Structure formats: structure tokens, C-alpha cells
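FW: tagging you since you asked about this chain on Friday. Here's the raw sequence from the shared folder, copied in full. Didn't touch anything.
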Amino acid sequence: MSDSSEAHVPSRGLRIGQVVEHIAVLGREMRRARSAPFAGRVRTAAQLEALFVLAHAGGPLTPGELADELGVTPGAVTQVADRLDAEGLVERAPHPTDARSKTLRLSRAAAAEVARYEASVATTLEDRFGALGDGELGVLADLLEKTRRPASPEPIEGNDG
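HL: got it, structure written out here
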């Protein structure tokens, strides 16, 4: 028979479900604000994701790198990049070491718009994070960062679940 305190500990699957639920709520709030940047033009989710990835990449990305980050095909990235390029939000440049490839980066105007949008979303969501102190918010950000990529397939020593 199990200890009664263990019976009240939610399973790992339940906890993951709770996290996903909370992220979905935040995602809905962010989607409501999609038209805020870029002169009120509504962006598709794929366009916003591409803009955010490019804004935080730390430098230009190849279309293949952007596709990997977004988890889509290079063809899908080409379509998104073509649209963003046509609107002056993304700039293409020759790859510095591969003459066959191009790189993508945000235009200065787009970078400024993404920064304004992120600040606006942070202000909008401030009340959702009001119960967290700065340290807790830092821990949450660090923990979510760990979920950006699948865990290594190699077993972690000392981790028994």
C-alpha cells in the first residue's frame, strides 16, 4: 500500500498537461495581440514565429536553420520569408561562406516592431505573472528554456525518474 502523501502527488503526465494548459492560455493572449505590430496588419502564426526566431537568433540564419528552429520544411520557410521580404520585414543577404546560400535577418524596422510588440505583450501579461517574484520568474524562464528542444536520447546518470 502506498503512502497517503504519495497518492496526492500528481503524475508526471498530469503535470505536463497542466503546464501545456497554462501555456495555451498565454498563447491565446498572445494571439489576440497579433495585429498590434506592423501597422495593425494581422500576421499569421508562422510569420510571427519566424519574426521572433530571427529577432532572437543573435545573427542571420539560413532558411534551413530557420526551418529547423520552426520545425517546418525549408519550402514553408521560403513562402513565409518571401511574404515578409516583400513587405520589407526580412532582408536576404548572401551567405558569408557559402555562395549557394542566402541568409535571413530582420530589417531594422521589423526588429523595432518586434521589440515593441514583445514589450506590449509583456505589459499585457504582467498581471498573469504578478504572483511571481523576480527570482521565481527567472526560474520559470530557465525551466521553459529547457523545454525548447527534446531531451537528449542519452540517459542522464543519477536520474531515476
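FW: The beta strands are 90-94, 102-106.
HL: agreed, and The first strand starts at residue 90 and ends at 94.
FW: great, closing this out.
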